[in-house]
Write a structure and sequence with these properties.
single chain; 409 residues; alpha+beta; 4-stranded mixed sheet; 3-stranded antiparallel sheet; 11 helices; 32% helix; globular
């Protein structure tokens, strides 16, 4: 798990890994240091007798938001941390890994029972930062006039069929992680406890909305027509001058497209899309990504549908024929990020992991092309503020149940 983080960062230069493109993003170097800090702060300092930190100042520099563990460097200024160097951060990772191995080797059954849950949490925490490392690096590279590719390999061609409406009869259903079930496996604290909810009959699209479908919304004046938008969304569109998803580039205006307009002159769309593989002509069959909740909700309104609730999404995840659940784009839901009935945060410093963010956020379900394989599950609850759109976020349509004769979205 730890080696994979270094592999993801390898295509980035030392200069790339030190830069911060906006306050919500972090440098790749910081992600590598912070994930090491997590193991050091929550495992080594409290549990390894005689542990000596490589540098005491790192405890301040690489704390993210753990108030109970002391002050921290301001998040918007992480790009100013030119020191320690990238090589020193890598040495810090090696130092932490060496001592984690020592801690494990010295554990008796009692100590292992005490540290194993935090060790497992740290590994899943690192997977979250592996995705953040990619999304933050992509935002950084999108700001460069060259728009360089993060990955050398060509993208896989998108293949999508007709989107069918899949029916769920609703009723009393159980959602959430059941920690008491045999073989339940890992889940974050915000995924439980398992509980019952009542759902009215609904229908959900079998696949995600594509770039080609979203382009029709744009061509129909979607970003110019306030009737499709929530009030806060429309105010954001006006203030930020949005006219397309975040990384869409109008190849016809010659504005810094690196010659793509000429290369794409025979294409059906004037749009190009910047992604992990660089700037490429829009693929109409590919799922649309880098959408805010506001844009997803506006498109759904324009399409005569709505976004699913997170309860509907989870209940529908087992329906036959449903596709693109976990490997393309996170899917906005209409659900506010609130605690489940009976929610209890983790004990100790890890109590700050999820619960304190349960206000002003919307839930996303699924997973994305940047999510490490095996990291997600049907109960996984991602969350972001409604205006956030630098992540691999898209949408799946839902609607109230219709007569069975209507079969296509």
């Amino acid at each position: 798990m730890r080696r994979h983080t270094l592999t993801l960062a390898e295509p980035l230069s030392a200069e790339d890994q030190a830069a911060q493109s906006m306050p919500d993003a972090s440098p790749a170097k910081w992600h590598q240091a912070h994930t090491s800090w997590f193991f050091e702060a929550l495992l080594l300092r409290p549990h390894l007798p005689g542990y000596q930190p490589l540098d005491d100042s790192y405890h301040y520099l690489f704390n993210s938001y753990y108030e109970g563990l002391g002050p921290r460097h301001p998040r918007p200024q992480r790009g100013l941390l030119t020191r320690p160097s990238l090589d020193q951060v890598r040495a810090y990772r090696q130092h932490v890994d060496l001592h984690i191995h020592q801690l494990i080797a010295r554990c008796d059954d009692t100590r292992w029972a005490a540290i194993a849950p935090t060790l497992e949490l740290g590994l899943h925490h690192e997977q979250q930062h592996q995705e953040l490392l990619l999304t933050d690096a992509l935002h950084l590279l999108s700001c460069h006039p060259w728009r360089p590719a993060l990955l050398d390999s060509p993208p896989s061609p998108a293949t999508t069929g007709v989107s069918a409406w899949l029916r769920h009869e609703g009723g009393l259903v159980e959602i959430g992680h059941d920690a008491r079930a045999p073989g339940a496996g890992f889940a974050f604290d915000n995924e439980g406890p398992r509980h019952r909810v009542w759902l009215e009959p609904f229908e959900i699209a079998s696949r995600l909305v594509t770039c080609g479908e979203f382009q029709r919304f744009i061509d129909d004046g979607g970003y110019r027509e306030p009737r499709w938008w929530l009030s806060d969304g429309w105010a954001t569109v006006q203030a930020q001058a949005w006219r397309a998803p975040l990384y869409w580039v109008d190849a016809s205006d010659g504005n810094g497209d690196g010659g793509l307009g000429a290369r794409a002159s025979g294409a059906a769309s004037r749009w190009a899309v910047f992604g992990l593989h660089g700037l490429r002509p829009l693929d109409p069959a590919a799922p649309v990504m880098q959408l805010s909740f506001y844009e997803a909700a506006a498109y759904a309104e324009w399409a005569g549908a709505r976004l699913p609730s997170e309860q509907e999404w989870e209940a529908a995840s087992a329906l036959p024929g449903i596709a693109q659940l976990h490997d393309q784009a996170w899917q906005w839901t209409r659900s506010a990020y609130h605690p489940y009935p009976g929610f209890q945060p983790l004990e100790g410093a890890a109590s700050e992991y999820n619960g304190k963010f349960m206000v002003g956020q919307l839930v996303l379900r699924g997973g994305s092309v940047a999510t490490p394989p095996g990291h997600t599950r049907p109960t996984y609850r991602n969350f972001f503020p409604p205006a956030a759109r630098w992540q691999f976020t898209g949408l799946r349509l839902a609607r109230d149940a219709r007569p069975r004769a209507e079969t296509h979205a």
